[in-house]
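Q&A FORM
Asked by: J.P.
Topic: structure of PPIase cyclophilin-type domain-containing protein

PROVIDED:
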Amino acid sequence: MVKYCVLMYQIGRGSFLISLDAKMLSLSLLSNHLKGSVESRMSITVTGKRQQVLIGEGGLQSLLNSIKDKDPDRVSVGLANSLDTIAELELLQAPGLSFLLPGQYLKYPRLAGRGTVEFTIEKGDGSTFSQAAGAEPKDQATIQVVIDGYSAPLTAGNFAKLVLDGAYDGVKLNTVNQAILSANEEKSNGYSVPLELMPSGQFEPLYKTKLSIQDGELPVLPLSVYGAVAMAHSDISEEDSSPFQFFFYLYDKRNAGLGGLSFDEGQFSVFGYTTVGRDVLPQIKTGDIIRSAKLVEGQDRLILPNEN
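REPLIED BY: S.T.
REPLY: Here is the structure written out as tokens.
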């Protein structure tokens, strides 16, 4: 099956939505976009990273070769490697947020950068997760998610605090249409933060406002990626996110609209993506349990409100 990937990446005054499909691919667009992204973010202090992205092993040149060879598996790996390095460049050049949050939202936790959350998932019925070829099946599996405070600081911040508080340990999961939803725990200490979406081409998020995909409004963090992580809506208003309930989105091109975008694109606060354990997601069933959730990276970027 041909793999499909939607990449949203913002540079300078604009951004591009790149749909990678082995059957329909504009090599010149992808090449110009990635090279432009890299060049625009380089500085003398990060020359080594620059060379790594452009000509290093697994860098841009390898990615372009994979595209030329029409190898979708290598394209996916190459994209991930290039974007990981670009993310490191961003951290070197932008250690904090590049915009000021509205004053009324400073009462919420916020993540000024990126973080990594590691989930340990356990089967609820005593069965096992299948592993890579030759490996023994196990009753637990690991999933890692990179959460993005650059584009969704309040949503990622609230989630990071909940993880630190152990709020998701022992929580059951439910599978619904194209999503894996955490059980809603009313006893949680999370914040009902406003819907938070950063449109492409903008430099700060919009709050309490959905995007109109039909009018060409596209989010920097798209939902239309397999393993995207987003908050559910609040029970009270769709202008706010749930203080606790989140979901893994299982994007399926066959159920997408025109342009390959999810029908729910621009409607939820997306704040991260599954980077490890994507093969585990389709094996999760209703009743499986989050045995533990840990913030393994990014705690130093989490800013908690002064509650005194």
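FOLLOW-UP: The helical segments are 27-40, 47-55, 60-68, 72-93, 153-164.
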